[in-house]
Amino acid sequence: LPPLPQETLSGESEEESNGVNLMEFSDEILLHILSYVPCTDLVLNVRRTCRKLATLCLDKSLTHTVLLQKDYKVNKDKVKQLMRDIGKEIYHLNMAGCYWLPSSTIDHVTRCKNLVKLNLSGCHVTSLRLSKMLSTLQHLRSLAIDVNPGFDASQLSSECKATLSRVSELKQTLYTPSYGVVPCCTSLEKLLLYFEILDRSREGFMLSGQLMVGESNVPHYQNLRVFYARLAPGYVNQEVVRLYLAVLSDRTPENLHAFLISAPGSFAETGATKNLLDSMARNVRLDALQLPKAWINGSGLLQHLKFNNPFYFSFSRCTLSGGHLIQRVINGGKDLKSLTSLNLSGCVHCLAPESLFRKAEDDIDSSILESLVVSCCNLRHLNLSAAHHHSSDSIGNHLCQLLSRLKHLLSLALPVCSITDVAANVEKPPRASNLVPQTFGRKVRIGIQTCPRNLGDQANQKIESSVFWALMGSLRFLETLEIIGSSFSSAMPRNEPAIRNSLPPCVRAQSVGDSEVAAISQLTYLQSLTLAQLPNILTGSGLVNIGLQCQHLRTLSLANLGMMGKMVYMSALVDMLKHCKCLRDLRLEQPYFCAGAQFFQALSHCSSLQRLCIVSRRGTLQSDAVMSFMANCLEVIMCHMFMGESLTVCRNLQQSIVRSFQADRPALNVVIFPLLHEDLTEVIRDVPMRHLDEITLFKSRVAEEPPNLWW
């Protein structure tokens, strides 16, 4: 460093040495800076530092909306003090996912007399507490709650029902068969329903989809504009959602413009649902649509539905052909500039003219994709995963080349086989050893490739001329990217035992590896990255490039990279993590993963890390390394590890972590359990839904829901 000026050394004032005083900034600039500080810190700490900040921290722009949903350091006492100090100034309060707060915390929300929007999803709220709270919130118009076993609508007071009658937006997560508060909401315009009801109780008894005796079965849908239902796997969820739809089938709301049902597996169409769809085709014009695949497959429904200015379509897992997509949805190339989000995940024939005699692995029809790109030029979210989209060798018609025209894309999900450079494959087909199915085993030597000495130079030469390199270079503002093998399935499905075998990757995907991963490093603004089933990862060198160049990366999910019988990219992963200063969520799914000192020392460089999930069949862990990591990374509040260790080892480590860190981290959630243990599903059901849905369970999240579905 250069020597300090003599004036400074002689004791001149800070102003004379060109020092910057934060308090000299304008109020507008200070308010902008303070908007990045959690509200609890502003009110309980920052405002006590000086008079100017005491005034600014209570500015309406900072107290109007209070977001506690990911403030993992907040506790009951802080919430109590916050509500006491600024309760009357709060109009929007989001406490979604605050599972660690005791139910008595909700009592303090009654101080917020002017609340208009309230999100309590994931919070412990009984029907009595809900009644007491809502009775005081006369201005409430938007509400999100959970309905748990034991909920009793008859305990809601008349004052509470009066408040609910004025609510126009309701988000309800159901863990038990119930209408919840829907029948009380007579002015509903937006209804979001999340069905998380299990088919079996903890005691092993089969549950019924029948509602409790005495519950009203007349929801009020006459003003409804948005209907959204997302179902977890299970027949009970299907039974209950049919009861909600029964009223809709009798009389379809005239102002309905978004109708969305997300249902995994088979959800058969019934006479009532058919009547509902027929009524929608006659009476409404939609802006957003998602239906179960059985309701679309083989029907002429799309030909009859009318659309206004659609902004979201999801045909996930449907057998819709590209010809039908163009003719019935895009109307032969109609201008669809309003469409911003499109989910074609698992839609295996969506880029082919017809599906009757086509194999899933056949080449796509580039003219269909070109029509889609031209018509929907303002797409911001596009999901093409879980399908084989193979490009032909015709020049200029590769899928990556066509997608590069979508300059507004913010999130993109692609199958691994779709990014293969066709010309390179023609010149040099995959070696026979690569085509051996990737199975689990203690010693897997079949197909192991010898790493070239000049791997870095070879990778640079390859990626700079590849179509995927060009695509990444053209999507400079992409924030979310998923590259997932078309046959990939996670070892941790939702309500079933862990999967013990995996399907081999697509033949076209055999050449996708380090060089393609390195191309992703061009995405300077990348915030979320998912890579799954990339078979040709040899060293993981491309991960290091991403760590160096993608400094905004917050979420990273890696699964089954390289050969399955050996963790080949540990060294590169360690180097990558040392540069990920903004990383908050890390999910790793890899057989034979060794969670030891080397890994956790590198992970300790991720100073912003909050959530960690590791899924590894036959994986091992070092308890001392885990404890040291938890002590060094003070922001970590979730540690999920499903490994190959014994139940005793897992339990002892879990208890040690909870005992050592729970007091200082109120939101701490620790689950360490053998992956192949028969009780895994029982353990999973106790994981907070926020963590389970956002990181623990693997899924494609691009265009999963319409943008801005809830505030």
From TrEMBL:
Domain F-box, first and last residues per copy: 19-66
What is the residue range of the signal peptide feature? none
Q: Would you say which domain of life the source belongs to?
A: Eukaryota
Q: Show the GO cellular component annotation of the record.
A: SCF ubiquitin ligase complex
Q: Which InterPro entries match?
A: F-box-like_dom_sf, F-box_dom, FBXL18_F-box, FBXL18_LRR, LRR_dom_sf
What are the recorded Gene Ontology BP terms? SCF-dependent proteasomal ubiquitin-dependent protein catabolic process
What name goes with this protein?
FXL18 protein
The gene that this protein is the product of is Fbxl18
